[in-house]
Specification:
The complex is a heterodimer of chains A (257) and B (325). Helices cover 78% and strands 0% of the residues of chain A. With 257 residues, chain A is mostly helical. Chain A has one domain. Chain B is built from 11 helices and 14 strands. Chain B has 325 residues and is of the alpha/beta class. Chain B has a 6-stranded mixed β-sheet, sandwiched between helices. Chain B folds into 2 domains: 5-225, Rossmann fold (3-Layer(aba) Sandwich); 231-296, YebC, transcriptional regulation domain (Alpha-Beta Plaits), CATH 3.30.70.980. Classes of the chains: A mainly alpha (257), B alpha/beta (325). The A-B interface holds A 1, 6, 9-10, 13-14, 17, 20-21, 24-25, 88-90, 92-99, 103, 255-256 and B 50, 53-56, 75-76, 78-79, 81, 83, 85-94, 98, 102-103, 105-108, 134, 150.
């Protein structure tokens, strides 16, 4: 078997391992099912009435944004898992095996695509019950879901790097949230950018979250797309390239602490 | 380098910031034997294992395992080794069987083999009943056994065991020792680190005592004990006032001048055979009352204390080896 086939089979073995964890330690299940439901309901019913979104009902405006935000956090399972593997000596074992160097990371990030898919499905169901409806052709909607998964996958690599560099699972989790949470709010995800003070507005307009959320609004709602879909694709691929490289470099030197 | 050595390291050096974890370590393990790497916490044992298993690049020196260079031939080398660490490095959310199968797949064993091998090892390690239980329900001893089983999945010719029994209860320790002995009987080469002298004494063909990044003594358990003076005779007198007379009587059969240590007359001897009878006869002839006579061999504990006792002294230049030896 060639090196590439080994890399693929190793990755699948480890992705399966990550996914098996979920039914067996169901505490994690809450974070990508109940938590997104809670966010949708809180934003739709608590803030919804106070935020003016010209051209759209608030639930239609909200859904693309809140799903993008959820995607960006989905990767915390990777950070948590890697950090635990480091602590428990599993990374030492994996690195002593004749397996592909990137497979531990690729397996974890691939498993996140699975859990992110569940999150998207749950949120769309809850959103629809709360009044959300698609306003775009079917193929655009499918493309939108794929873009969401790609963007989530990119952030899994960010979290992979965080998990390998932070000192404990708890630190990995909070570091991720401290960096990413504000970024998602200073964007077009929850309010129209035009409603922000000038300085924030300037930042929000170049924030990749704004680009991805706007791309999703065009794919789900038929809003004018501009270059946003291509921009979102470029950001996702760029983040994957940079953080996959950094993470694999880090992994090659990682030893149990 | 010599093909007869399964593990061969020369001048290994490794520093973390300002701590010298390894400062020129040489190791040679003939194929099919067990080397015990003995040392206190922080001596550099784990660092040595990590370098030899390709987890850590050395700052200097070179090492070969199964004839393969740790730096240049790491991917091939990893196929030849098994590692069981201080932590039971197994996934708590998988079952015992799933853990071993996963490791078998990652060693790229042929199709069907990972499952068969998992069943075989679970049986051998007395874990068959727990094969389909999640590892987080296992006891500490069971986890260690599973960890060792994982290291054996690919039948590696060279096995690295980093403190394999630390924290185990005595029964589990003995069971693990028996398993390791079984592997060695089948021809596996083992490098074992331990802080337990009885473990090194029982399992290791040769022992390297390591302290503060240096190998400070090397040899078989017997050789190390001989370095400390070999066998000796301890005589307790009924009356300490007889000491001078007893020394005069025993001097001819002692290898060195007898000394009084804590009320016990202690002397190294030339040979074991007949010495006790001879000592008793001489003391009787001199009319000296005896409370107790015993032949003693220094324990590995004493060897270790003596060796590291030196090394732990503040001045480390010259590695002064004088003193009570």
């Amino acid at each position: 078997m060639s090196g590439f086939r080994y890399a693929v089979s190793d990755t699948l073995v480890l992705a399966k391992r990550s996914l098996l964890r979920i039914p067996r330690a169901p505490d994690l299940l809450l974070s990508f099912t109940v938590q997104p439901i809670m966010f949708v309901l809180l934003f739709a019913y608590v803030f919804g009435g106070a935020i003016s979104t010209p051209g759209y009902s608030y639930i239609d405006f909200l859904m693309p944004g809140i799903i993008v935000q959820t995607m960006s956090f989905g990767g915390f399972i990777t950070a948590l898992g890697l950090s635990e593997d480091l602590k428990k000596g599993l990374i030492d074992r994996f690195r002593s095996l004749p397996m592909s160097r990137g497979a531990v990371l690729a397996g974890r990030t691939l498993a996140d695509v699975g859990t992110n898919s569940i999150s998207i499905a749950v949120m769309l169901v809850v959103g629809t019950i709360a009044g959300f409806s698609f306003g775009a052709p079917f193929l655009h909607i499918v493309a939108g879901i794929l873009l969401l998964l790609l963007f989530g996958y990119a952030f899994s690599w960010v979290f992979a790097f965080v998990g390998l560099t932070s000192s404990s699972p708890e630190a990995a989790q909070s570091l991720g949230f401290i960096v990413i949470f504000p970024l998602t709010f200073v964007s077009s995800a929850f309010v129209p950018v035009e409603s922000m003070p000038a300085a924030l507005q300037a930042f929000a307009e170049v924030n990749p979250f704004t680009i991805v959320v706007d791309a999703m609004r065009s794919l789900f709602l038929g809003a004018p797309a501009g270059n946003n879909v291509w921009g979102a694709l470029a950001w996702s691929l760029g983040i994957i390239a940079v953080f996959a490289f950094l993470s694999v470099q880090r992994y090659k030197r990682a030893v149990t602490r | 380098m010599d093909a007869d050595f399964a593990i061969e390291a020369e001048g290994l050096r490794k520093s973390y910031k300002d701590v010298r974890a390894l400062d020129g370590v040489d190791l040679r393990v003939p194929a099919g034997t067990v080397l015990g790497l003995l040392g206190p916490n922080g001596a550099g044992k784990t660092t040595a294992v990590r370098i030899l298993t390709t987890l850590l690049p050395p700052d200097g020196g070179s090492a070969r395992v199964a004839g393969l260079d740790v730096a240049r031939q790491a991917p091939q080398l990893r196929r030849q080794i098994g590692l069981a660490g201080q932590y039971a490095a197994v996934d708590e959310n998988l079952t015992g069987a799933e853990n071993l199968e996963m490791v078998g797949r990652l060693y790229h064993l042929p199709k069907g083999e990972p499952r068969a091998r998992a069943a075989e090892l679970l049986e051998r390690f007395d874990l068959s009943d727990a094969a389909d239980r999640l590892v987080r329900t296992y006891s500490g001893g069971m986890r260690r056994r599973l960890d060792l089983a994982a290291a054996l999945v690919a039948r590696p010719p060279v096995l690295f065991l980093d403190e394999p029994t630390t924290g185990l209860d005595p029964r589990s320790r003995i069971a693990l020792w028996e398993t390791i002995e079984g592997r060695v009987a089948e021809g596996t080469t083992v490098l074992l680190t331990t802080q337990y002298l009885d473990e090194a004494d029982r399992l290791a063909d040769r022992i390297s005592v390591i302290d503060r990044g240096h190998v400070i003594a090397e040899g078989s358990s017997d050789e190390l004990k001989d370095q400390l003076g070999g066998e000796r005779l301890d005589v307790t007198l009924e009356d300490e006032a007889d000491t001078e007379a007893a020394i005069a009587a025993l001097e001819p059969i002692a290898a060195e001048h007898p000394t009084l240590v804590d009320g016990v007359l202690r002397m190294p001897i030339h040979q074991r055979k007949g010495t006790i009878a001879e000592a008793v006869r001489r003391l009787n002839d001199a009319g000296i009352g005896i409370d107790d006579v015993a032949m003693r061999r220094p324990s590995l504990d004493e060897v270790f204390l003596t060796l590291t006792g030196h090394a732990l002294e503040p001045e480390d230049e010259g590695d002064g080896e004088e003193g009570e030896r």
